[in-house]
Input
Amino acid sequence: MPILRTIEEKVPVRIWTDDIDEETLAQLRAMAKLDIVYPHIAVMPDVHLGIGATVGAVIPTREAIIPAAVGVDIGCGMCWVRTTLTAEQLPDSLRALRGAIEDAIPVGFASYRDPLPDARLRPVLKRLRPILEKAPALEKRLKDAEATAAKQAGTLGGGNHFIEIVLDEEDRVGVMLHSGSRGIGNAIGTHYIEVARREMERLDRRLPNRDLAYLREGTQSFDDYVEAVSWAQDYARLNRQLMLERILAVMRRHLPPFEVTEEAVNCHHNYVTVEEHFGERLYVTRKGAIRAGAGELGIIPGSMGTRSYIVRGKGNRMSFCSCSHGAGRRYSRAEAKRRFSVAELARQTEGVECRKDPGVLDEIPSAYKDIDQVMARQDDLVEVVHTLRQILCVKG
Output
């Protein structure tokens, strides 16, 4: 389905859905007033109101980056791998497996007592020290930043982050997870959002929203942010890889022997990168969107108890080769807790081995948009490779 709606501001806003509220439209209009945005903003069908910038938006900018558009969960994204296991090889109850995964992977605010003994961590952590030295205020935000980053590598975090065991359309078993750059990424994002605000105030730049403050190419703060955000994106990718390997190791202890049959898909959906579009070198920020270049594989999750998808991009130039990153929230976390009950959560996640308690009520499937409608609205952006259904879910 092609673009369904266009808003004309300083630059157009191209929207791939008609399921969008007025508050979110107002936030998009504010972003489209910025003179650094070019040539248009692309809005994915999972769009919803965000903090500072709209979730489900692809925001291309010239010679500047908006830290709040990248957000504080820098490099947050998805990972999936398929195995040779089939559904009939699984035990009747997956409760013991869920418990073993929860024992192996710290969730929420938890971290490892000691860093994982993995050689891939050392060069990543070594790159962190110069970043902290350039921004002493950043180091103060997170006590013992390097030690914390080391102990949080390979951990899940909280919110909507998850680990799932899934079945594809042929009942083959896979592992899917969602996580980002943990506490250190949050500290980096928060610090540079404030730096950008101060720079805009110093330059007396009038902005439609102070959260849309940006860092300008050619300044020291821009260079420092690019170094820090690139580090956080690399850290987030490694975080997912380390978790995936530990989960597979747990599965090997609890399930029949198996092999991994495909190379893992590991993709960001909160990040910024340099790309060329419409003949221009642009900083492309995907805030709740994944890259969907021609032939590129990506992951679009639904919610607890609904379908998810492995997709192949079609390289649609109007979306800046992007697609949605999930179903997208319909209700805020607070509103979901007001609207729904634990009994409804249990009913909507029937058949899925997962928590069914007040602590995860804000993640009830009804808090999200209909994933099948979201997929139908972006059939010009991606094609479906695999359809997945959850059978086990670990939440942060």
